[in-house]
Amino acid sequence: MAMMTQADGQWLDRALQFAGLTWTYPAYEDLFVRNGWQLSGRDGEPVILEMEIWPPPGEEREEGWHLWIGNHPGCEEEGTEVACAHPGCREDRGVLMPLAYGAFEVTDPGGEPLPPEEVWEFDAFTGWRWRPEATEDDWASAFRAAEELLRARLGEPVSRPPDEALDAERGVVWEYGDSSVTLFEGAELLHYGQYDWICVDVRPRGTP
Question: Looking at the 3D structure of the chain, how many domains does it have?
Answer without folding.
Answer: 1
